[in-house]
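TA notes. Do not distribute before section.
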Amino acid sequence: VRVRPLTCTETQRGDRRVVHSLGDGTIHVSTARHDATFGFSAVFDAGTSQEAVFEGSGMRQLVELAIDGFSCTVFAFGQTGSGKTYTLMGPLTQSEAQPAAPGLLGLMQRSFACLLEQSRSGSPGLALSASYLEIYNEQVRDLLSPGPPCALPLRWSKTRGFYVENQLSVDFESLEAIADLLLQALNPHPPPLAGSQRRRTSAHALNRHSSRSHALLTIHVRRRAVSGGPQHDTPLPAPMWVPQPSACPSKQGTLCFVDLAGSERVKETGSSGELCVEANNINRSLLALGHCISLLAKPRGKRTHIPYRDSKLTRLLARSLGGSGITLMVACISPSSRCLSETLSTLHYASRARRVTTRP
């Protein structure tokens, strides 16, 4: 769980701080009507740096597991304006011309740097590709394909599970190229492959840069087999040649970053028209996600059918939620007394998610 600082608007308005970190992964919410304590794997208060979140959340281990062939996912979820996109990507003002200060980089950029470090030291032969999708008004759109984003069909197969048909995957020769893609994506005048800038955002009463879609950036990590036997410039005589076992077998893993659109109350955001339709679709898909998490949190013997098909978001995240992958969920909350209801909702949501176990 990550608690953002009070904003200038909240401070000037006189909002009280109702969320306090007690240490050891414990968080306390205290008001006149509510007094509750929650326990999590880690709690990062308002003063925690981006680097401390990366190291303390286990993100570095997740990167190493992806290189080792596992399917890994990191979620950021919470109320609109709670800091989800900042946690994943860093400041929205960064661009190629004005990159963010190293200390402000988010989980994505730090993960890319960690991947680069691993490829240079202990994991030679890494091949990387990336795909970038958004779910907007229950339509899946490819953010990397040239031209206006168009809806893509979501299919099912026994071998692949749910997948997006005709999705574009971009190969990268270096991890710096993936980081450049993110920097271009935050540029106000992006080139054709600037995925995040093409993502739907709008301004309303609670957030000037509110994400109006769920975004999924997936890095595919393929490690080629590396022979463990001695290398010779000339062939050895036949009697002396013995096949050597592969010291590092080929593996294929994924690292998926999921930036969920924020939950919001339409009345408080002042949304109307198209914004209202977007908000209803966002809340509907988040409700479906919460329902799946609630059922997955039950003991395996007491589980009923998990309704992944209730939304396109839960279909695409089916394997991450209850399958064979490894998932990190970062709940972002506001400490403001005005956001108490949404904060408690997010903390209960995260408490249920913590009880979900997968079999990687």
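Switch to the second chain here.
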Amino acid sequence: VDLLSLSAACDALDQHNLKQNDQPMDILQIINCLTTIYDRLEQEHNNLVNVPLCVDMCLNWLLNVYDTGRTGRIRVLSFKTGVVSLCKAHLEDKYRYLFKQVASSTGFCDQRRLGLLLHDSIQIPRQLGEVASFGGSNIEPSVRSCFQFANNKPEIEAALFLDWMRLEPQSMVWLPVLHRVAAAETAKHQAKCNICKECPIIGFRYRSLKHFNYDICQSCFFSGRVAKGHKMHYPMVEYCTPTTSGEDVRDFAKVLKNKFRTKRYFAKHPRMGYLPVQTVLEGDNMET
């Protein structure tokens, strides 16, 4: 699916007249639409796409995510969410497209409609057994978080939804992380890992915002290795693509500022890389 452009996905959905998002799709409809998608991809990437195999595996994946009881039906919205979330497109284009699917004809979205979208999105990490990292499978706290961000308006428009998504709310942070992982796969950074001495660093690069010229490669960072004098709670910045001169200057200024801060300051002010979402127990009751 990572070879599929958003426009090609939309063409296939239009071709099969999949406009009613709350309607169920049966196995035959899913297979027909997937066949259209993979036939087109085979023309562009014939060495990578085996149509019957891809259709079978994608069908299985969609049913594993959205039809755990194996009823043989999933909603059109679920089909679109699964395919578009993993397709080849800019992150914000995906957000705009998905918001449009649940918005009314006037372009606004209420709590119930947003809940449908977030519910279908969270099923992807849930199927991988990763849902606990994203605040659990209950989407009410995320819906509440979004509408609180919008000053508790009864409905939100796309621009406000995009602003909230840019903060990377906990329940949806898996999708931008997926994009960063994909971008980092081939990235080469002109820097040397201070721990294993890998140079250039390939993949993610972690730069210290406490020490000058202190970089860690992804293997050392993920396994929690640190060099002498560097604590795990010190601030780091993650790069999935090579840094620009502007980012280098900005990080230099941050290191300078952090040089004057104490160890206690960093222990007290841990940085969250995403917008934490309160659990149901912590928030007020929400009308569902």
